[in-house]
Amino acid sequence: MHSHLLPGLDDGAETVEQSVAMLRELQGLGLRKLVMTPHIMGDFYKNTPEGIRAALSALQTAAKQAGITNVELQCAAEYYLDEWFGRRLDHGDELLTFGGTKRYLLIETSYINEPFNLAETIFRVQSMGYQPVLAHPERYTYFYGRFDELKKVRDNGALLQLNLNSLAGYYSSGAKRVAEKLVDAQMVDMVGTDAHNLKHINVLRDKTLSTEYLRKLLSMPLLNSSL
User: Fold this and answer.
1) Rounded CA separation 84/91 (Å)
2) How confident is the model at residue 43 (pLDDT cuts 50, 70, 90)?
3) More exposed terminus of the chain, fewer Cβ within 10 Å: N or C?
4) Which CATH architecture group holds 16-226?
5) 118-125 own/partner pairs: CB under 8 Å, 24+ apart
6) Chain-wide mean pLDDT for the chain?
7) How far apart, in whole angstroms, are the C-alpha atoms of residue 101 and residue 4?
8) pTM of the model
């Protein structure tokens, strides 16, 4: 429920051929459904629902032609909490969600700077009928040493999505420590690959799958299987 396989939209796959190669590798790891979530971020990744759906259609066609028929492909988006996101809420723009009637909305923030209105935005998103899901909270350095604040975010209604490769220390030792702490505290609601390229999938296969904490994580009542 968090990856960047859709071609040509952000810092993930650049071409349909790269998308199909990544898809084939994920299929080999046993995945049977992908909700792909390209960035939507201010003036940098000015993706639209129409453009994302067009990229999804192109990948679905290419996957079928490549003989990959047992993996269901869907799309949503990963929304960066900036002023443009606030304007989308103000204007009632369509937001791409996943999970059917659950209307899960994947959101992210700066890795370094804490948004001044995070709690307000989470409340506003909820009041509009969405269920916010905070992407990779273990990677936000402004939460380091402030685990109680991260717990408060979840207590206030945001679900937490862990990046699987954080368990292997791929991003940083700090992200690994927070990821393990989230697992120990039973505070992980969803997991995702956040795969942007084949390197991420190789790390998942060669390192993450053998970690002790992955086994602990998969014993939790994660929401992925209900999507």
Assistant:
1) 10
2) confident
3) C
4) Alpha-Beta Barrel (3.20)
5) 118/81, 118/153, 119/153, 119/156, 121/81, 121/85, 121/86, 122/153, 122/156, 122/157, 122/158, 123/156, 123/157, 124/89, 125/89
6) 97
7) 23
8) 0.97
